[in-house]
């Protein structure tokens, strides 16, 4: 087992399935103790159980990213269990495909509440705890010689440019890129690094949902939607959750101590900005 995160405490949101689960497993494989947080308690427990079976340490925490009180309770539970937080990976999010002229307030609000507002307050709660862990003299100095925390947010290639059938989702993911930059500036004095990953096509339950919804709009089958999207990828294949998880682990590691405020596309070349 790679031990680069030995004695590190990590929170992974959306850890019950897909990319979030892969990130939780990868961090645990590298030695971190992982709080697997997810709205679906059963899924979170399954992830924690997988980590236990592989010899790691984890606990499942059910929480609602749309509720600030639930976010705070999740962070507090992690600190009560392990006394600190070193890593936060904000994976949890929701998606919807719907034509611009048909979206309603009921479509807009949940996506912004989870993908944008929830991410901000999760980041804030974890960063506040990370700052409390810093020696007082370092806090007073306003600069640090070593890293005191790693935060990785998840955007999407949909956040890189407009999407006619994903207006709320694309807007929320574009906001994540800006939030990452703002937080990186705000937390730089504490050497808390904040970066972002923008995945492309990764065949997770969320992507399958997206293909089905896009198919209803286009009249194509979900399988044909996926095939056509793959044709637009320079590398001509989908990515895997493990590939995304390894990039997240890199950004959480000492190897990325001089990287902050950046968004890395992991998309086979779909976006090159």
Helices and strands, with pairings:
Layout: E1 9-13, H1 18-29, E2 33-38, H2 41-53, E3 58-62, H3 68-82, E4 87-90, H4 105-132, H5 136-141, E5 149-154, H6 167-187, E6 192-199, H7 205-218, H8 222-231, H9 241-252, E7 263-266
Parallel strand pairs: 1-2, 1-4, 2-3, 4-5, 5-6, 6-7
Helix pairs in contact: 1-2, 1-9, 3-4, 4-6, 7-8
Descriptive account of the structure:
The protein is α/β, with parallel strands linked by helices and 273 residues long. It has one domain (9-266): Rossmann fold (3-Layer(aba) Sandwich). It has 9 helices and 7 strands. The longest helix has 28 residues, at 105-132. The radius of gyration is 18 Å and the shape is globular. The model has no long low-confidence stretch (mean pLDDT 96).
What keywords describe this structure?
single chain, 273 residues, alpha/beta, Rossmann fold, seven-stranded parallel sheet, 9 helices, 7 strands, 48% helix, globular
């Amino acid at each position: 087992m790679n031990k680069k995160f030995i004695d590190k405490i990590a929170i992974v949101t959306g850890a019950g399935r897909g990319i979030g689960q892969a990130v939780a497993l990868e961090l645990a494989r590298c030695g971190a103790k992982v709080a697997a947080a997810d709205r679906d308690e059963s899924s979170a427990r399954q992830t924690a159980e997988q980590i236990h079976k592989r010899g790691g340490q984890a606990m499942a925490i059910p929480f609602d990213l749309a509720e600030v009180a639930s976010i705070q309770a999740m962070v507090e539970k992690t600190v009560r269990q392990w006394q600190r937080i070193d890593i936060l990976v904000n994976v949890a999010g929701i998606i919807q495909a719907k034509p611009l002229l048909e979206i309603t307030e009921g479509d807009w609000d949940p996506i912004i509440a989870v993908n944008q507002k929830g991410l901000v307050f999760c980041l804030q709660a974890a960063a506040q705890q990370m700052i409390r862990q810093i020696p007082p003299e370092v806090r007073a100095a306003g600069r640090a010689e070593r890293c005191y925390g790693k935060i990785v947010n998840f955007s999407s290639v949909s956040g890189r440019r407009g999407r006619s059938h994903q207006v709320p989702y694309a807007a929320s993911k574009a906001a994540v890129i800006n939030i990452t930059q703002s937080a990186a500036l705000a937390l730089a004095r504490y050497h808390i690094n904040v970066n972002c990953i923008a995945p492309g096509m990764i065949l997770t339950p969320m992507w399958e949902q997206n293909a089905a919804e896009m198919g209803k709009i286009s009249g194509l089958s979900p399988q044909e939607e996926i095939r056509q999207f793959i044709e637009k990828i320079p590398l001509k294949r989908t990515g895997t959750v493990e590939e995304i998880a390894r990039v997240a682990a890199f950004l959480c590691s000492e190897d990325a101590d001089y990287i902050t405020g950046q968004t890395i596309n992991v998309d086979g070349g779909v976006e090159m900005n």
